[in-house]
Amino acid sequence: MDPEFVILPMVLIGLPWLILHYVTKWKTSATITTDDEVLLDELYQLARRLDDRMDTVERLVASDNPEFQPKRLQANLEADNQQLRELDRLIAEKKGTAK
Amino acid sequence: MNSPRTTLYRDKHNAKLMGVCSGIADYTGVNALWVRLGFLVLLFTVAPILLPAYFIAGMLLSKKPPHLYVDKEEQQYWQRVRQSPKRTAREIRARFRDVDRRLAEVEHHYVSSNPRLTAEIERLR
């Protein structure tokens, strides 16, 4: 049997099958509506604000009570790392100007 | 269009030609270099139709509005939303739970040790 007779149907049937399979998968996957988007935006901003406020409160309590040590479940959090990097950068700048 | 953060734009700011590839990169969170490489490889191997498709997309898609996101973190957040809204919702819930736990810790500290009361007692001695 010629290899063409195998490859041609494979491409003609298999490729559209593959494409349609992923198209239906993409269509049935949950798309978010405008309301969902607004809700997610609000939740994100709220979570961020609460997180910042909690940081402030923890710092205040820790400055009043030295024995209070806030525990971090996620020790390597990107939001905190970013601030630490900023601090490092500022310290480095200050050292650079002092010299 | 009322959902500015979940539509596909062409990113003229980081564009090489019309910004379609960089727009896809910005939408999905994949590095623009990989999107362009994949586009070129597909273009020259299996799908030359991608070339007219590129220009059609370049004409149909609107430009990404400037200042859509406040910072890098927000941009990454929306990339994750576009990848999987469910997972992002779970992440948000995790963040709220984390704040709740930390608040409970502060509350517990004040209720159990009561630093003000011990200070008063110290003063009375």
UniProtKB/TrEMBL annotation, chain A:
Keywords: Membrane, Transmembrane, Transmembrane helix
The keyword rRNA processing belongs to this UniProt entry's keyword annotation: no
Biological processes, Gene Ontology terms: phage shock; regulation of DNA-templated transcription
InterPro entries reported for this sequence: Phageshock_PspB
Transmembrane segments: 6-23
Pfam families reported in the protein's UniProt record: PspB (PF06667)
NCBIfam families listed in its UniProt record: phageshock_pspB
Name under which the protein is recorded: Envelope stress response membrane protein PspB
Organism of derivation: Altererythrobacter rubellus
Lineage, highest ranks first: Bacteria, Pseudomonadati, Pseudomonadota, Alphaproteobacteria, Sphingomonadales
Protein encoded by which gene: pspB
TrEMBL record, chain B:
Transmembrane helix listed as a keyword: yes
Cellular component GO terms, alphabetical: plasma membrane
Gene for this chain: pspC
Pfam families on file: PspC
Domain Phage shock protein PspC N-terminal stretches: 7-63
Top-level taxon: Bacteria
UniProt keywords, alphabetically: Cell membrane, Membrane, Transmembrane, Transmembrane helix
Stated name of the protein: Envelope stress response membrane protein PspC
UniProt-listed PANTHER family: PHAGE SHOCK PROTEIN C
Upper classification of the organism: Bacteria, Pseudomonadati, Pseudomonadota, Alphaproteobacteria, Sphingomonadales
Bilayer topology annotation: Single-pass membrane protein
Transmembrane regions: 33-57
InterPro entries referenced in this protein's UniProt entry, alphabetically: Phageshock_PspC (IPR014320), Phageshock_PspC_N (IPR007168), PspC (IPR052027)
Location relative to the cell: Cell membrane
